[in-house]
Automatic annotation (TrEMBL):
Membrane spanning stretches: 334-364
Keyword Ribonucleoprotein belongs to the record: no
This protein's UniProt keywords: Calcium, Cell adhesion, Cell membrane, Cleavage on pair of basic residues, Glycoprotein, Membrane, Metal-binding, Repeat, Signal, Transmembrane, Transmembrane helix
InterPro entries recorded: Cadherin, Cadherin-like_dom, Cadherin-like_sf, Cadherin_CS, Cadherin_Y-type_LIR, Catenin-bd_sf
Lineage: Eukaryota, Metazoa, Chordata, Craniata, Vertebrata
Function: Cadherins are calcium-dependent cell adhesion proteins.
Organism of origin: Dromas ardeola
Gene Ontology molecular function terms on file: beta-catenin binding; cadherin binding; calcium ion binding
PANTHER family from the UniProt entry: CADHERIN-23 (PTHR24027), CADHERIN-9 (PTHR24027:SF99)
Membrane topology summary: Single-pass type I membrane protein
Full protein name: CADH9 protein
Keyword Repeat: yes
Major localization listed first in the record, in broad terms: membrane
GO CC annotation, single: adherens junction
Length: 517
């Protein structure tokens, strides 16, 4: 008797153990073949012979289930493959053994009641409505509790949700069959006591159609009627489409709106095949009187609830040949001379507009006045007058005539100001006569008064400078230009009489000793 064990999760082909029958013969007389003769596990296990060791290897043939059967018993038979006919009476040259295999329990993931689920729901179902249920259970003896969830990778918009306790699916957002007719989601079942044990199941949700869309024209129709059309002539055939998909197929009806039920110009004929024909009701049409007609048409279906819409058909009046082929539909062609197209009219209009703009610009340019240099008196304060004249030094006797300043009676022509308009053109400012022995202070006051009352004077922030040097100075001129230019020695002894502050100069220039130093 042999004892073996196998986990219930062992895949087919897994070896469980070895058995061996002893044979004292050698060579081919010792070769043995193993087989399962009977037992309750003959269809669950298999045995093969190892030719090298003459052992029998027991393997798993089918998936095991601890909850279904925990123990199997096998009768294994070992037989010589090459019996000698001379010794058959000594037979039977075989032996049997009993093999017991116990199945070990393994914690398994939950198992759903179906391999997949199909749920159908109307597209007008309310939010929170339960649409179906999935069921899973723990196959182990412990029967652990199960919780359910939706794999959000398969429901990114979170349209569906599930009660974790009983697996009931419900709607979280409105449905729209015309946008998404199918939803494929995945539901996950997990053991509460062992969250690692999970299983998944696909759930296919089909959205059933509800008649919530009205039919409309299948396309935009460019319809025209010839000016020479006859009454009862077909000018257009229209059809309709609907986003809904009724189970019995589409069925559309066409008619004019009640206000135009007796239209004097056109009528509509329902062809009973989801199309309708537009017919003329009178002879002849004129573009000069009416170039375009608007014909409103009601389209409705036969599903429940009935949906309808109104489409407007635009019909143009055109000139046609004798065969009814359109030639021209432009109403303005009747009013324009031959050979003058719409493009030519637009070009002529643009030229006229450009010409008017040029004339207007020229007139404005002529009327524009020249702005004054200075708008107000206050602006004068913002002007800066810069004079870059540079004198030639003290030797330059032509740069400034001091005699003119000393002669108050000298007259000079006034220069006109450029920032204001003078009251009198070419007015010459004359200064008041002054006598030669006038006091300097009076002289300055007279000059200041003249500048204040002179309209042609420089701006208010200009600086007028007058140089004046009096006569009979005790120190005479201090300029080096009037110093003696003789090469003879000068007497600087008087510097010693000026006090201690001039002692250094007296030592430097006074006496021969200082010259030698």
């Amino acid at each position: 008797t042999y004892q073996f064990s196998s986990p219930e999760s062992a895949p087919p082909g897994t070896p469980l153990g070895r058995i061996k029958a002893n044979d004292p013969d050698v060579g081919e007389n010792a070769e043995i073949e193993y087989s399962i003769s009977n037992g309750d596990g003959s269809d669950m296990f298999d045995i093969v012979t190892d030719k090298d060791t003459q052992e029998g290897i027991i393997t798993v043939k089918k998936h095991l289930d601890f909850e279904n059967k925990m123990l199997y018993t096998l009768r294994v038979e070992a037989t010589n493959t090459h019996p000698d006919p001379r010794f058959l009476q000594l037979g039977p040259f075989k032996d049997t053994a009993l093999v017991k295999i116990s199945v070990e329990d393994i914690d398994e993931p939950p198992v759903f009641s179906r391999p997949w689920y199909l749920i159908e729901v109307d597209e007008d179902a309310k939010e929170g409505s339960i649409i179906g249920q999935v069921v899973a259970q723990d196959p182990d003896i412990t029967k652990n509790a199960i919780k359910y969830s939706v794999d959000r990778h398969t429901d990114l918009d979170r349209i569906f949700n599930i009660y974790s306790g009983n697996g009931s699916l419900f709607i979280s957002k409105p449905l729209d069959r015309e946008e998404t007719p199918w939803h494929n989601i995945t539901v996950i079942a997990t053991e509460i006591n062992n969250p690692k044990q999970t299983s998944q199941i696909p759930v296919f949700i089909r959205i059933l159609d509800i008649n919530d869309h009205a039919p409309e024209f299948a396309k935009y129709y460019e319809t025209f009627v010839c000016e020479n059309a006859k009454a009862g002539q077909l000018i257009q055939t229209v059809s309709a489409i609907d986003k809904d998909e009724p189970p019995r197929g589409h069925k559309f009806f066409f008619e004019l709106v009640p206000e135009f039920a007796l239209h004097p110009n056109f009528s509509i004929v329902d062809n009973k095949d989801n199309t309708a024909g537009i017919m003329t009701r009178r002879n002849g049409y004129s573009r000069s009187k009416m170039s375009t007609y608007l014909l409103p048409i009601i389209i409705f279906d036969n599903d429940y609830p009935i949906q309808s819409s109104t489409g407007t058909l635009t019909i143009r009046v055109c000139a046609c040949d004798s065969r009814g082929n359109m030639q021209s539909c432009n109403a303005e062609a009747l009013l324009l001379p031959a050979g003058l197209s719409t493009g030519a009219l637009v070009a002529i209009l643009l030229c006229i507009i450009i010409l008017l703009l040029v004339v207007l610009f020229t007139a404005l340019k002529r009327q524009r006045k020249k702005e004054p240099l200075i708008i107000s008196k206050d602006d004068v304060r913002d002007n800066i007058v810069t004079y870059n004249d540079e004198g030639g030094g003290e030797e330059d006797t032509q740069a400034f005539d001091i005699g003119a300043l000393r002669n108050p009676e000298a007259r000079e022509e006034s220069k006109m100001r450029r920032d204001v308009i003078p009251e009198t053109i070419f007015q010459i400012r004359r200064t008041a006569p002054l006598w030669e022995n006038i006091d300097v202070q009076d002289f300055i006051h007279r000059r200041l008064k003249e500048n204040d009352s002179d309209p042609a004077a420089p701006p208010y922030d200009s600086l007028a400078t007058y140089a004046y040097e009096g006569n009979d100075s005790i120190a005479n001129s201090l300029s080096s230009l009037e110093s003696l230019t003789t090469e003879g020695n000068q007497d600087y002894d008087y510097l010693s009489d000026w006090g201690p502050r001039f002692k250094k100069l007296a030592d430097m220039y006074g006496g021969e000793d200082s010259d030698r130093d």
